[in-house]
Amino acid sequence: xxxxxxxxxxxxxxxxxxxxxxxxxxxxxxxxxxxxxxxxxxxxxxxxxxxxxxxxxxxxxxxxxxxxxxxxxxxxxxxxxxxxxxxxxxxxxxxxxxxxxxxxxxxxxxxxxxxxxxxxxxxxxxxxxxxxxxxxxxxxxxxxxxxxxxxxxxxxxxxxxxxxxxxxxxxxx
Amino acid sequence: xxxxxxxxxxxxxxxxxxxxxxxxxxxxxxxxxxxxxxxxxxxxxxxxxxxxxxxxxxxxxxxxxxxxxxxxxxxxxxxxxxxxxxxxxxxxxxxxxxxxxxxxxxxxxxxxxxxxxxxxxxxxxxxxxxxxxxxxxxxxxxxxxxxxxxxxxxxxxxxxxxxxxxxxxxxxxxxxxxxxxxxxxxxxxxxxxxxxxxxxxxxxxxxxxxxxxxxxxxxxxxxxxxxxxxxxxxxxxxxxxxxxxxxxxxxxxxxxxxxxxxxxxxxxxxxxxxxxxxxxxxxxxxxxxxxxxxxxxxxxxxxxxxxxxxxxxxxxxxxxxxxxxxxxxxxxxxxxxxxxxxxxxxxxxxxxxxxxxxxxxxxxxxxxxxxxxxxxxxxxxxxxxxxxxxxxxxxxxxxxxxxxxxxxxxxxxxxxxxxxxxxxxxxxxxxxxxxxxxxxxxxxxxx
Lengths: 173, 447
What we know:
The structure holds two protein chains of two kinds.
Chain A: H1 2-28, H2 35-41, H3 54-62, E1 64-66, H4 76-91, E2 95-102, H5 109-129, E3 137-143, H6 154-160, E4 162-169
Parallel strand pairs in A: 2-3
Antiparallel strand pairs in A: 1-4, 2-4
Chain B: E1 7-10, E2 46-49, E3 54-55, H1 61-77, E4 81-83, H2 102-107, E5 112-120, E6 126-134, E7 139-140, E8 145-149, H3 154-170, E9 178-186, E10 193-200, E11 207-208, E12 216-221, E13 227-232, E14 239-244, E15 249-252, E16 260-266, E17 272-279, E18 282-289, E19 295-297, E20 305-310, E21 316-321, E22 328-333, E23 336-341, E24 348-354, E25 360-367, E26 370-377, E27 384-385, E28 392-397, E29 403-409, E30 417-423, E31 430-431, E32 437-446
Parallel strand pairs in B: 1-8, 2-4, 2-5, 3-5
Antiparallel strand pairs in B: 5-6, 6-7, 6-8, 9-10, 9-32, 10-11, 12-13, 13-14, 14-15, 16-17, 17-18, 18-19, 20-21, 21-22, 22-23, 24-25, 25-26, 26-27, 28-29, 29-30, 30-31
Subunit structure (chain B): The Tol-Pal system is composed of five core proteins: the inner membrane proteins TolA, TolQ and TolR, the periplasmic protein TolB and the outer membrane protein Pal. They form a network linking the inner and outer membranes and the peptidoglycan layer.
Family (chain B): Belongs to the TolB family.
Protein name (chain B): Tol-Pal system protein TolB
């Protein structure tokens, strides 16, 4: 938990630096943004620096975890990302999440569909174990149907073997 | 009187084939019958001549040309036959009834001669007649036949002629008058659009069955070819849908269980289906009675069980499971029970498909970074790999069990998927022409 707090502080600090640059950029373009508000709080609402924003979830915490070939085990690195996701989801209770499981192209179609489900389910079970209410989560597998990288080398495969937590505001009704 | 035999009527959509007359005379027997034994592995294709069919009226002119072209293309496409080009012909066939000058066909080394004629009858229907000759004995192979059908069925009638020629010379049932349902693919790998499409086995008469709005996967024909069952993301999750080929209406099957369901296959009687459903991390096989919707769970192992295929008699299922740690092939009773592993070679085995003859299983094999399409006997013996590439996947059997079609994906950022066919001997590998890319072919029954 201490590590998590330290990480959060560091992220906040980094965020402040990045934010200053963003403010200058906005000023130069005359975007009419309240630059003082940004500087005072170090946060642009809705940006990756705003801990309550989806952008923060997607970029600062990280919306995805990666897997080894034909595996659905969560690496220590993946677990750290998911700890952040769980924390965020428990803080932002008006969000639901769909976990999308994916495989690389090295495998037959229907097997990869089941493998993507294993990966997505591993993420879902981890988030539930960390305290996220199960009824806020569901998963779907895309198998090898939706790669984000298109080369046929390990560098791309590694990024395609993923589970992505897609959040959206929604009710449980 | 002509020795014309069965008269078939071909409807526009080709469903009804009806024998209305049996007027043939007995076939002349030749001393040494013309024969290709497919299992022997044909190295030298049998030369045949197929002069343009005789147009018996002006209206039949275009049909006559197309008929002989399609017949020739079907036969040469098997790799078992070689056409002697028209330019080499000495004799012309100008009348279907006139005696054949066998010496002229012997002189150009034709072993088989196919003659035919086309006419348009008073009802506007196309009438096709043909005969097959063994040039060296001068005898007819089988009897002359006549087909009657609508003009838009000209290619089907040609396929029926070619099926007859193939069958009479190989002793095997033909496969040319058949269709393939598959997934048409377009666009780059990370934005690929997928649509169900149906076409003749040779790529002609392609028709799209779905739009590209939702991902569709792995269609399979019903045993009679009238329905297609497939997986679609239309609802946002992979679910099993059934589509009526005739009116292209689809519906989702209710109550499939699990969070996702996929890999559906019809039972040989068309009454039930088997499929995979996923709950949590576990994918198992289920059987559903289509009429009642009643579901029976067939496997309970915590591993992935998918890609099932029925034996032709419906009593057994071959499927893949990674219960041993990697994908391997297993056979079990259709009612469930303890499966028996049949794949023991190096690498992983998936997508098993039982041959229509019942004696072989085709599969996808992954080993040492390559993919193969292969066949083995149902006890796992006599494994033969027929292809090798970066990614070959998902074989489907021709209705006569002699040819496989599958998908081959090329590597890299610009990689695309195309359909290929190959003999179970491993020869005659060739691409099936489709307007866009293709994957997940399912070869339908002989029509």
